[in-house]
Amino acid sequence: MNSSYAQKKADLRSVLTVYGRKSVLEALTDEMLSCQTLHMADSNRKGGIIADIEQRAAARGVPVRLHTRDALSRISRNGKQDQGVALDIACPAFAALDQGWLQARLVGSKAPLTLLAMDGVTNPQNVGMIIRSAAAAGVDGIIYPDKGLAALGPLVIKASVGTVFRAPLLRCERLLPALRLCQAQGIEVSYLDGNADNSIFEQAGAGHRVYVLGGETHGVSAEIRELADTALSIPMAGGVESLNVAVSAALVAYASQRR
Amino acid sequence: MNSSYAQKKADLRSVLTVYGRKSVLEALTDEMLSCQTLHMADSNRKGGIIADIEQRAAARGVPVRLHTRDALSRISRNGKQDQGVALDIACPAFAALDQGWLQARLVGSKAPLTLLAMDGVTNPQNVGMIIRSAAAAGVDGIIYPDKGLAALGPLVIKASVGTVFRAPLLRCERLLPALRLCQAQGIEVSYLDGNADNSIFEQAGAGHRVYVLGGETHGVSAEIRELADTALSIPMAGGVESLNVAVSAALVAYASQRR
């Protein structure tokens, strides 16, 4: 029973449910996406964009399930904005961040493992840009906690220019225990800090490492600074005191892959 | 007469005029800025924020000049949004991009000269972020044409988090002749193109070079592709097809300084 529950939970981690009529229609139109199930509220009026959605789903052979309005809200997790429509998209690059995943990757990897984490980045525009850049750089995983980060919803998806569906998101509940888990597997935890002595350009890519980027307002939280093994900086000239967090993430992600 | 006119024009190039009551008050409050002259419309009603602006200017010894509403519009170049207030800020790192500047810098430089240019980047948010990142990386100049780029105004200043006042902006009228001038001085012109064979990480920093970044919608224009000596790409993994232009600019700027 337990292992089947764990399996189901792991499966849920690799599904992203999008909602809203326009977002769902767009996703159904993207041939690169693996659409699993279309969920519709039985209260939806027929015709218009609802008819377009149904036609597109039928053409692609995507099964449709009807729900009460309440049940649909629980599926979309956003009853206020789902407009009675939700779509499950399979994201095979997603994984639940747990000991099993880490061990499998560490055994199999020839190059140093590079993970990226965000601590309190609440602007979905930045989160989406970070996912896009990190995926482009080829990092092994982007830790995505359910709490303390912009929700994995339409704004993040839009800002990622759709790259989120193919990005290696490592999903977990909260960041701190996830970082402890990484540390226990011998992965160094480093956070970015403009005042740190060591530069990412000297240190990046030297060993298994998770890079933690702090939020726009408060930076990296005290408890994560406490936990971390090292602090790293991006050198700045010209009297500039800080960089945009999405820019920092891109520099870190590419630096980690350049050794 | 001619040389005095040229001198005056060059001086104007190293002044940035901000406008709007809140922006002007903010600038007057920033001790790092060299505020030259406060311009006020004689129609401004006294008191409130106008009184704050006058007090702050007096405390810093910034001279005040009164103008008719029309004359003030010509100074701010934005009569609709200046709210009767404009402030000249001296930006000593600004220069007019001409043969003299290029020759002086090429003679004096031990390291390869790195310039950054934007072609048709119309989103002020991106332009501001690019200036901030390029200044932080320590590039030698950011070419800023009067035409074909988001106006050097409040939105760009805000997105740059104020770094624009200290950034090495090379001002000119249009980008194409400016690039020809660079080329005539032996500076290689390279544009960024996702499909180019050569990676910036292999090539950057190898010689004097100006990197041209294309706009959000159309990329680098045909006439600049034609003119350019080389095309360079940022390698992308994970099926990602492009990067945000501000992210690309940061990667290019830092790569150029890492040799």
Total number of distinct structural domains of chain A: 2
Radius of gyration of chain A: 20 Å
Task: Output mean pLDDT of chain A.
Answer: 92
Approximately how much beta-strand content do the residues of chain A carry?
A: 15-25%
In CATH terms, the superfamily of the largest domain in chain A is SPOUT methyltransferase, trefoil knot domain
Low-confidence parts of chain A lasting 5 or more residues at pLDDT below 50? none
What does the main sheet of chain A amount to?
7 strands, parallel
CATH architecture of the largest domain in chain A: 3-Layer(aba) Sandwich
Number of strands of chain A: 11
Largest interface: A-B, 30 and 30 residues
- The number of helical elements of chain A comes to 11
Strand order of the largest sheet of chain A: 5-8-7-6-10-9-11
End-to-end C-alpha gap of chain A: 45 Å
**Secondary structure: helix percent of chain A:** 40-55%
CATH topology of the largest domain in chain A, by name, is Alpha/beta knot
General form of chain A: elongated
For this structure, the quaternary state is homodimer
CATH class assignment of the largest domain in chain A:
Alpha Beta
Which structural class do you get from the secondary structure elements of chain A?
Answer: alpha/beta
InterPro entries (chains A, B): Alpha/beta_knot_MTases, Ribosomal_eL30-like_sf, rRNA_MeTrfase_TrmH, SpoU_MeTrfase, SpoU_subst-bd, tRNA_m1G_MTases_N
Pfam family, one (chains A, B): SpoU_sub_bind
Domain RNA 2-O ribose methyltransferase substrate binding (chains A, B): 17-95
GO molecular function, one term (chains A, B): RNA binding
